[in-house]
Structure formats: C-alpha cells, structure tokens
C-alpha cells in the first residue's frame, strides 16, 4: 500500500535541529528531559535541567485525555490542570524564562485544533518554543498544523515506533523536523525495568534512514538505560523519571541532580 | 479504494451517493472522522481497514457472520407495534426490538463481526471499553464463544452503577479493569483501552463498541449494525403496506444503534432523529474537536479540554459522538435533540406499563423524545430503535423510584 501523505514545503533546518546537530557533531550524546508545564515551580525546573546539561527541553502542555501517557504523566497533567494550567499560562510563564536551550512543546491536538493551528503556532513561537510534538497526529492528518507550524518557524517532531514499517519510517525521517523521536517500546510513557532489543533495533533503523538527530524516548528511567539507548542513537529523552521526582516533591535541585547524573553518564560513555 | 461498496443494502441506490455510504479514503465523513492516532497504532488501523474491506467482500465471511447472528444472537429481531402506547400518544409507535438479542442489546451485532475479524487477522485477544456494560458483556460473550482472552476497561463510577454487568463479564471469563483517572466513566475507559492497545497491538484487537474512534471503526461498526436497519426497513414496509415510517428515532451516545437504524433509512424519505442526554449533548453543543482518534463534535471547555458528560445512563455518558453523526447533522440529513433525566425516567415507566417492555435507560431517551413531541407527531408513524433491555437498570431505577411504586 503506497502512502498518501499531504504535501509539505521543503524547509531548511531550524533552530532546534541546528542546535542539536552542532552538539552531536561536537561529539556529545544528546539529552532532552521532558516535564509537565504548569506543575509547581516548573519554570525553575526548566532552568535547572538546562543548567544540568540538557540540550533541549520538552514541555508538556497538559490535556484532559493524554492517551499516550502512563499513570505518572497522567497524574502530573491532572494536577497541573487542577492548578489552572492552560496553554495561555504556559506561554505566559515561558516568556519570563531564558533557558538557553531550545524548547519543544508536547501536547495533544485538540488544544491546537480548538485555538486554531495558526494562532497556536504563532503563540508558541512568541513564547519561545522551537518545536512541537503532537503524538495523536500521524503524518496523514498533519496538513493544517504543519503548514501553520512551518510558517511560524516551529519544527514539528515526528515519532516512529518498533513496528513502524519501512515505508512509513522513511517518510517519518524525511518529514520530521528538529529531530526524529524513536519510541523505544510498544506502549505508553512510563519507567521500565528494561528496554529490550527492540529499542536498539529501532535506533539502528532510524540512524540508517536519516542524518537528522535521532533521539530515543519512552521507558528510560536511569543513567544505565540512557547510556544503553544512546549507544545506538544520538541521545535520549527522559520524561516520567523526572516528572515522578517532581510529583514526589522534588524541586529544581532534585531535577538538577537527576539530569546531571544522566549528563555525566552520557559524557563518560 | 473500490468504487462499489459490497455492503450497500439492496434497493438503497448507488452507495457512493448514499447519505450513508463509505467515508473518503482518509476516513472522513465531510469534515469529520479521520485517523488521529499515534504513529505506533497506524499500522494496526491500516491493517484493520484492509482486513475488514476484504472480509466484508468475502461471501464466506458474510455467511459465517449471518449464521452467528441468526443461530447465536437470535436475529432477526422483530418489529413490535405498540398498540396501547400509540393510543395514549396519538402517534403510531413501532419498536425495533434489539432488546431481544442475545446479551440484551444491539451491541452483539458489532462484536460478533469484530470477533470473526480478529480471528481472521490471527489475533487472540480482545480489548474493549464499556460504559453501561452492554458492550463489555457482548465482547466478553464473543470472546468466550471464540476462545479469546478478553480485557474490558470500565470507569470506576460505572462499575459501581452497573455492578451486575461487571459480574456478568467476569462470569464470562473476561477481566474487568477499572479506569480510575479523569471522570472515571466511559471516556476514561476509552483512554485506558487505547493505552492497552498501543502496548499490545501485535496480538490484540481493540473491539471498539461504537461508531467512533479512528478510521475504519466508525464506518466498520456502522456496517456491522446495518443489519438492524435493513431488517427494520423491510419489517416496517411489511407492516405499513410498503411505506416507510415517517420518523426513525434512536438514542445517541457514541451513536452505534442510531447509525445502524439510520443506515437502513438514510436513502428513504424518513426523518432521522437522534436523541442525546441533556448532560452529554455533543451534537447539540456543536463544537468540533479531536479526541479518541476522530474529529467530531465534542463537549469541551474554552481551551479544548474535554468535559465530562453527565446523565442517568452510563451508556450515553460520552462527551463526543461518532463522526458520521456530526456529518449527518452538518448536512441536515438527521437532527439531534436533548432530553432530560426526568423525561427519561418517565419514559422508562411509560413503556413498561403500556407495553410490558422494560427498556434500557439508553433507548428510554428515544422514547422520551417521542413522548414529549407526541403533539407535533400526531397521526404519524414513528419507529424507535429499542436498542437494549432494562434488566441492567432495574436496581438503579429501584433506588430512584423508591417509595413511588
């Protein structure tokens, strides 16, 4: 079956991809933490993880029905929503932050659809975001968002998983901007005891298919796993393990310490 | 894409031009539908669409399904003329008796089809969501019949409201897992079922219970319920000297029973009416959104956070609606109207007393609309899809009506 995908405009690498390429080409393994926007003193955590050696930071804009997220990020989203978080509060809070590294939003499409693709992309750019991950928008449905994002200079990161067939994987690599997000496992976000061979296999397939930065996420819980996954890719995304520490009451210092431990493990690998 | 749908009912005309034909190749009904799922689920959605298309065109598959519907589920279900209720309302009321199917509702039609499809795809585990428990019971039943594993997600609140169905599913060998996040009702059960499916898609089939979710579900589930609409059209014509009813009415949560009966009449002159609970009127609210794999009308706040639906009926407590209903509303082919819980409680009792039929709370919504609109429907013939029986709701109604009876 041939893919019938909406056309996209050719674009040069943006700020996010350029930054990650430079870091990678300088020999670093890339480290991208994820945290839930609006959760406690989250802007301080953004600064802390950037300071601890993050190469970019993913910020979840909480949604009522996060189907790709496991219990930890669900709980974080619910708490942030109860505390009054909206896309507007995330954007407003971020305008006061200069993290020094590119910021990538991750959310679900209804928030964008409801506000309107162009307005959402515009407000993201104004707030300082460089990239966007929409896990519930596959390539086939990306037309309206992609046009708005490209026009606003927002790089749309696409995901591929262990059972993504070759033709779709090639299309993901071709169309993804910023980096390519490899999903380590079949399932939702959350810490796992082990990642298994499928993560390494996917990473190898992605690396063979693209020169764009390849980052692997889902399930990465500790420095050992980060090193394991980064060995065959360009780096890792760590979400739940960080969010859990924040939910457990850890502040910017705990976040800094955890991310620094990942940074040094990756640097020594 | 084939240009001819093998599923078009005899006499419904060109399926491409039918008001309820196939969606476009992207799964769109007008501006609604589509496939808003994670990349990890796209291969499964594409595989499912191909498998269904092939199976639906395969006479062997169709005859095996027809055999199960006849010998196991008890189809065809009759159409019953309600003489006493008609006299009371001044409206000629016919009921399509889906309450008489095995497991007590229309849900079995869809589930038997998806179970056969699951076997055809070489999978051996069913995952399902359920609200009132009717779809969960039907899925657990089909799993027992086929020897499949079965996991049903149900909101914690609904598990409490529908204890009997929880026990029934367990008796049938299914595992019932509580959905304990969010509103802890149907929408959260859908979230949990999708999360399970993302993790188990290579061996499990998501047996979605309504005309919602990503393509091909809205189309496939409607086609699997088309049998009830086709039967009803023929049965009504037999009763009405070849004429069709003036109005065809069904309750709408996700909208599967309505889609089934509407599909039998979409190409006739019958007026199509969907009835939503006042506390879960997605079409009534009229705000488009994207959730659970589809673009449709969706109850949501000013930021697009999905709101919780509230009604007396767990089966209709869904903030969205199937995309084809959104489209039928858009093009004016069907209209959708809200009824209140009080009107539903009244309708539940009226049908019980006038016809000796205790309806489920869901189709009691459709009856409630007919009762309310009786003055404007005077002299006309109305076909109501009685999508399920009320056994599951008797305990809840006993609490509500305590002291009144």
Explained architecture:
The complex is a heterodimer of chains A (269) and B (405). Chain A is α/β, with parallel strands linked by helices. Chain A has one domain: TIM Barrel, CATH 3.20.20.70. Chain A is built from 12 helices and 8 strands. In chain A, helix 3 crosses helix 11 (240-247), helix 4 runs parallel beside helix 6 and helix 10 (223-230) packs across helix 12. The longest helix of chain A has 17 residues, at 252-268. With 405 residues, chain B is an alpha/beta fold. Chain B has 2 domains: 24-70 and 107-217, 3-Layer(aba) Sandwich (Rossmann fold); 74-105 and 226-400, Rossmann fold. Helices cover 44% and strands 17% of the residues of chain B. Chain B contains 15 helices and 14 strands. In chain B, the strands form 3 sheets. Chain B has a 6-stranded mixed sheet with strand order 3-4-14-9-10-13, with helices on both faces. In chain B, helix 2 crosses helix 4 (107-120), helix 4 crosses helix 9 (217-239) and helix 9 (217-239) crosses helix 10 (256-265). The termini of chain B are far apart. The model of chain B is unreliable at 1-16 (pLDDT under 50). At the A-B interface, helix 3, helix 5 and strand 5 of A face strand 2, helix 1, helix 8 and strand 11 of B.
Quick recap:
The complex is a heterodimer of chains A (269) and B (405). Chain A contains twelve helices and eight strands.
Topology of helices and strands:
The complex is a heterodimer of chains A (269) and B (405).
Chain A: H1 15-25, E1 30-36, H2 42-51, E2 57-60, H3 71-82, H4 87-94, E3 103-106, H5 109-115, H6 117-127, E4 129-133, H7 143-152, E5 155-160, H8 166-175, E6 180-183, H9 197-209, E7 214-217, H10 223-230, E8 235-238, H11 240-247, H12 252-268
Parallel strand pairs in A: 1-2, 1-8, 2-3, 3-4, 4-5, 5-6, 6-7, 7-8
Helix pairs in contact in A: 2-12, 3-11, 4-6, 5-6, 6-7, 10-12
Chain B: E1 28-29, E2 32-36, H1 42-56, H2 59-71, E3 79-81, H3 83-89, E4 92-97, H4 107-120, E5 125-130, H5 134-146, E6 149-155, H6 156-161, H7 163-171, E7 175-179, H8 186-200, E8 204-206, H9 217-239, E9 247-251, H10 256-265, E10 271-277, H11 282-285, E11 288-291, E12 293-297, H12 323-331, E13 334-339, H13 341-355, H14 361-377, E14 381-386, H15 394-400
Parallel strand pairs in B: 4-14, 5-6, 5-8, 6-7, 9-10, 9-14, 10-13
Antiparallel strand pairs in B: 1-2, 2-12, 3-4, 11-12
């Amino acid at each position: 079956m041939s893919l019938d995908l909406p056309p996209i405009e050719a674009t040069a690498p943006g700020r996010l991809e350029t930054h990650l390429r430079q870091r990678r080409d300088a020999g670093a393994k890339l480290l991208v933490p994820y945290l839930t926007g609006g959760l406690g003193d989250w802007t301080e955590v953004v600064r802390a993880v950037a300071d601890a050696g993050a190469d970019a930071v993913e910020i979840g804009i909480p949604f009522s029905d996060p189907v790709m997220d496991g219990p930890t990020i669900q709980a974080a989203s619910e708490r942030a929503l109860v505390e009054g978080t909206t896309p507007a509060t995330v954007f407003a809070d971020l305008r006061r932050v200069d993290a020094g590294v590119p910021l990538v939003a991750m959310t679900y499409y209804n928030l964008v659809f409801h506000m309107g693709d162009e307005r959402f992309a515009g407000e993201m750019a104004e707030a300082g975001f460089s990239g966007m991950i929409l896990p519930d928008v596959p390539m086939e449905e990306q037309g309206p968002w992609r046009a708005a994002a490209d026009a606003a200079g927002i790089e749309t990161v696409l995901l591929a998983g262990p059972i993504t067939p070759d033709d779709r994987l090639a299309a993901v690599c071709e169309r993804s901007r910023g980096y390519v997000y490899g999903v380590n496992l079949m399932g939702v976000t959350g810490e796992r005891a082990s990642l298994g061979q499928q993560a390494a296999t996917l990473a190898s397939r992605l690396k063979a298919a693209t020169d764009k930065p390849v980052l692997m996420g889902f399930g990465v819980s500790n420095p050992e796993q980060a090193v394991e996954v980064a060995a065959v890719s360009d780096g890792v995304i760590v979400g739940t393990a960080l969010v859990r520490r924040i939910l457990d009451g850890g502040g910017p210092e705990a976040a800094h310490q955890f991310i620094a431990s990942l940074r040094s493990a990756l640097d020594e690998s | 894409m084939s240009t001819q749908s093998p599923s078009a009912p005899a006499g419904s005309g060109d399926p491409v031009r039918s008001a309820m034909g196939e969606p476009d190749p992207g799964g769109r009904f007008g501006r609604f539908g589509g496939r808003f799922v994670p990349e990890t689920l796209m291969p499964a959605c594409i595989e499912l669409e191909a498998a269904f298309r092939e199976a639906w065109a395969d006479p062997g598959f169709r005859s095996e399904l027809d055999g199960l519907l006849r010998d196991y589920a008890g189809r065809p279900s009759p159409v019953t003329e309600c003489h006493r209720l008609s006299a009371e309302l001044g409206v000629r009321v016919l009921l399509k008796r889906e309450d008489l199917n095995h497991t007590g509702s229309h849900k079995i039609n869809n589930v038997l089809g998806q179970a056969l499809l699951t076997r055809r795809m070489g999978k051996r585990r069913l995952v399902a969501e359920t609200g009132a428990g009717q779809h969960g019971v039907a899925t657990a039943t089909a799993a027992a019949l086929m020897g499949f594993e079965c996991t049903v997600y149900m909101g914690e609140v609904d598990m409490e409201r529908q204890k009997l169905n929880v026990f029934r599913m367990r008796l049938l060998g299914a595992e019932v897992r509580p959905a304990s996040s969010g509103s802890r009702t149907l929408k959260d059960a859908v979230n949990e079922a999708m999360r399970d499916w993302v993790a188990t898609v290579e061996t499990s089939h998501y047996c979605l219970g309504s005309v919602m979710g990503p393509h091909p579900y809205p189309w496939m589930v409607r086609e699997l319920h088309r049998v009830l609409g086709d039967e009803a059209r023929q049965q009504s014509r037999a009763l009405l000297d070849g004429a069709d009813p003036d109005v065809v009415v069904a309750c709408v949560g996700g909208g599967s029973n309505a889609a089934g009966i509407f599909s039998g009449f979409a190409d006739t002159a019958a007026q199509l009416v969907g009835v939503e609970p006042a506390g879960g009127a997605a079409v009534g609210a009229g705000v488009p959104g994207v959730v659970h794999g589809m673009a449709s009308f969706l109850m949501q706040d000013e930021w697009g956070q999905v709101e919780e639906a509230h009604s007396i009926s767990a089966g209709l407590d869904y903030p969205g609606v199937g995309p084809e209903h959104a489209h039928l509303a858009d093009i004016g082919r069907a209209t959708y109207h809200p009824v209140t819980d009080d009107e539903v409680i009244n309708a539940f009792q009226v049908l019980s007393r006038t016809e000796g039929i205790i309806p489920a709370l869901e189709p009691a919504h459709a009856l409630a609309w007919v009762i309310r609109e009786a003055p404007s429907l005077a002299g006309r013939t109305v076909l109501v899809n009685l999508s399920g029986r009320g056994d599951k709701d008797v305990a809840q109604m006993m609490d509500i009506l305590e002291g009144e009876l």
